[in-house]
Amino acid sequence: MRKLFLLFVLFVSLMAYQSYSGQAYPVATCSVGVSSNTYGPMNSNSTADSKNRTAFILRASQLDAISNGTITSTYFRRLSSSGTLNNTANFKIYLKNTTMSDFGSGSPDWATEIGTATLVYDSNPDTAVGSTAGFKQFLHTANFVYTAGSNLAVYLEYTQTTAQASTIGWDYEYGTTCINTGNSNTTKYLNTTGAFGATLTSSNYRRPVIGFDANVPPPTTVPACTTISAPTNAATGVSVTPTITWAATSITSSYLVSVGTTPGGTDVMNAVDVGNVTTYSIPTSTPLNYSTQYYVTVVPKNVVGPATGCTGVSFTTRNIVCPTVSAPTAGATGQSLTPTITWASVATATGYKLSVGTTAGGTDILNNQDLGNVTTYTFATPLTTSTTYYYTVNSYNANSASASCTERTFSTICGATNVPYNQDFESVTTPALPACTSLENAGTGNNWTTYSSAGGSFNTKVLNYTYNSTNAANAWFYTQGINLTAGTSYRIKYIYGNASGTTYPEKLKVAYGTSASSAAMTTVLADYPNVTNGTTAISEIIDFIPTATGVYYFGFNAYSTADQNRLYVDNININVTPVCTEPSALTTSNITTTGATISWTAPTTAPNTYEYAFTTTNVAPASGTTTSATTANLGPLTAQTAYYAWVRSNCTAGNSSWIQVAFTTLALPPANDDCSNAINLVPGGTFAQNAVTGTTVGSTNTPALPASCLSTPTNVAGNVWYKVTVPASGNITIESDAVTGSALTDTVMSIFADCTGANSIMCDDDTGNGNFSKVSLTGQTPGTILYVSLWRYSNAGGGSDGQFQISAYDASLLGTSEVSGSKNDLKVYPNPFSDILNISDISKVKSVSVSDIAGRLVKTITNPGSALQLGELKSGMYLVTLEMKDGSKQTIKTIKK
């Protein structure tokens, strides 16, 4: 005979083991939850007269390992590490084979239930075998034979007549389909003092953590085949040391694992007995090959023999791994023109290939060049100075090559460059500085960085100086070295400004010299001791002539006092002085939906004429319209469109370079900008039911806002119109709300009796969600049309237009029971409810969502039970939406007390 110990334990997947001839056999598994409980299976508490009865049913699928076995002991798990039960306590255990899967929804009669059961234990529970805490063994005085295929009913009775000195906790399993398979009537219990009642009156999801000893007859047949769960069949990209996982099978003592490179093959593992386990990992010392298809078979075995006809799975291992590159470090700068690339060897690799280019993914330097089985490569031909290179190292062997290896970059040492030199800082990742530039005296909180975004008339990214609150600034930013020729006239252009206008005046000096050091900055091109223009950038153009040929560096020196704000420099350009000087200070005005006016300042030496043009992309035009004026009107333009205006000088010797300014035309008013075109709102039962999306972009400002709404009515701009018919209840709520991503965050609403704007009914600023408006009206005449004006709160001329939601609704427009339904006809009860709302048939429900009466989602419950815990909700009306497993939905109106 075989002896089996079956336990139902938390996180140990309900695994039982039986022993025979030195082998172990796992039985059916199931994962459960577990919690502590002071009254199950024994109500060992401080009440003198305390009793409880518990009955529960174990399914046959959980008892396969003890089929036809004689159960000799029962185990329960005790949590307490101290304390004993009084001698007056008594504990009884009854067992019965049954065809019942649960006790039904009624109250079972105790005497009837145990009348055909076997009393296997009747004694003081503290005499049970085992430590104070942990599993307690209750040795049966009468053995019980479990019949294969039956369910097993367990009946427990505990009584005490003397209060316990301390409460003793016992584990129980809770709320899993493993225990109850969706039915709350699998477990019944009764807690009482005084005389026991005749019936078990309560049902819930609790069941004590239980185990058994059983003498089981040896198997007479081979076990059934198992199912391999990992790797999945036909899986790709599998590790070369995979873990093979399979399901446990009953009457099994061990498993035979075979692995081969052909269907049913055994050239890697030939029926290796791995013991009574459900996983096996290929050792790291003997990995599989990369990029190879393998076939796996797992065959259960017992004393009778191995299972027959078992099939397996196939999988393909991943590509050979990418090598780990150690040098140059990722993003390294200042590298030699003949750098060495170094990487770590890869097991089973027979060689490596290298690609190098001057663009991401580029191969213009080396195109997947085979280097052989080495781990370094040194460039034989010098690379180019001041250049970023992109490179990738791949490994390979006879049957695999690495893929998707990380591309890395390095930059070579900086050399001098030629004019034209342009630096707009746009390609730099903030806060880093451009390659080949440098700093001097930065620190103590005073630093030049790349910053995004200064705003105003600056580009997206700028050179930014941020000041320390206690240390004065005297730091330099230097360009890359630039080759200049003696006697040649050059021109430097840049723009500058500060973040705070006159509040924090800044100081900036611009100079050049023969090295990137303050001592070499001997020629000062400009000095600005009081920079107060803010983000309206000032454009500067300076011509200069170097006296000697050589490499020159241009420095920008922030020398403000401590505790300032930000100083900006952008669009640095150095080039040969043009024969024709461009104009400056290009500005826009009178921007409308279809036109704009541009103006500019003439250069010191006026040109013959000017050319101007406009484009929708930031690309200079080939030519433009000629004018002798310093102003021009642009058009026709398209509403709400970004444009670039361009101007250049025309001289006898040629044309200057273009200057440009960006602007955006105004938007066309929305269709409901005027009350005569008010959009009709259809009242619904909730905000979400008939909400529509509108916009204030391009809207004008009519009529005047009622004085009762804001202390400063001028703080509104750009309104649009809606209308709504009052429902039969005479009540209506009109509410606005946000649209994700919209710049509009604050609205003001007025309700009028007509379109004149003179007959105001009510207005509101911030009653709705956040700063959005909401008006609730009662006692209105049904059928009356109300006119709704929605403004953008402008914050005295500021604020941002954008999209919004608006809806009219009243709870009277909801149904009295189901708001929306489907082919399902589920019920929720009780209604009204206090804390728990029950669902009549939870087996059809996939998830539950709860919304307030305005349609806002307040709670979502996935994988719900039949009893919804909603105690945290405030009193009021809610919509409970049941999403069914068949894809349909049912929404029910409920009331929380």
TrEMBL record:
Q: Where is the signal peptide?
A: 1-24
The UniProt entry, under Pfam families, shows: GBD_T9SS_assoc, Por_Secre_tail
Which positions fall inside the Fibronectin type-III domain?
Answer: 582-670
Which InterPro entries does the entry mention? Answer: FN3_dom (IPR003961), FN3_sf (IPR036116), GBD_T9SS_assoc (IPR056600), Ig-like_fold (IPR013783), Secre_tail (IPR026444)
The answer, when asked if Signal is one of the entry's keywords, is yes
Q: Which UniProt keywords apply?
A: Signal
SUPFAM superfamilies (alphabetical): Fibronectin type III
Name-wise, this protein is: T9SS type A sorting domain-containing protein
Q: Please give the organism.
A: Chryseobacterium paridis
